[in-house]
């Protein structure tokens, strides 16, 4: 069990008893990536992506005492966003498959210099991640930041697990090669 999963379980327990601060922490932790995911599944740029994510969080808070999560909390939130988008698309009578819309698309206490260097490295890596193609970036973030398994990502994005593996391999290869050999990019 990862530290992130354990933290999520603790947050969930606190949320279930009505602790709004725990809900705020959950929101801050997952909102940016869920918004990016939502935008990637909608057919055109709109405020709907933000509305979808906010509705998911609103419903999560409203039903907090009855929610039973059998997967990870992040997987639950991603599936909730995906289902909400399906509902939204159904209301608009959009029948285009999601794939067609999307397209191809730690610091130690050693001292301030070490912390500064760590922050600089983290910023450089983040810049490189932003250079990845949108779909590859999404898959990479879902795996590395949200700790979703390849199978969970494949299920959420409705692609094969081999596609997820290939995208992750290419992303990691790009990040390693670019960071090592071309620091001018960052």
What does this structure look like?
The structure is a single chain. This protein has 186 residues and is mainly α. It folds into 2 domains: 3-100, Rna Polymerase Sigma Factor, Chain: A, CATH 1.10.1740.10; 104-181, Orthogonal Bundle (Arc Repressor Mutant, subunit A). It is 73% helix and 0% strand. It contains 9 helices and no strands. Helix 8 crosses helix 9 (161-181).
* Number of separate strands: 0
Q: What is the assigned CATH homologous superfamily of the largest domain?
A: RNA polymerase sigma factor, region 2, helix turn helix motif
What is the CATH architecture assignment of the largest domain? Answer: Orthogonal Bundle
CATH topology of the largest domain: Rna Polymerase Sigma Factor, Chain: A
Helix content: over 70%
Task: Using the coordinates above, name the CATH class of the largest domain.
Answer: Mainly Alpha
Cα-based radius of gyration, to the nearest Å: 18 Å
N- to C-terminal distance: 34 Å
Count of individual helical segments: 9
Q: SSE order, as H and E?
A: HHHHHHHHH
Instruction: Quote the average pLDDT.
Output: 80
Which term fits the overall shape?
A: globular
Question: How would you characterize the largest beta sheet?
Answer: none
The figure for the number of domains is: 2
Structural category: mainly alpha
Poorly predicted ranges (pLDDT <50, ≥5 residues)? 98-115
DSSP strand content: under 5%
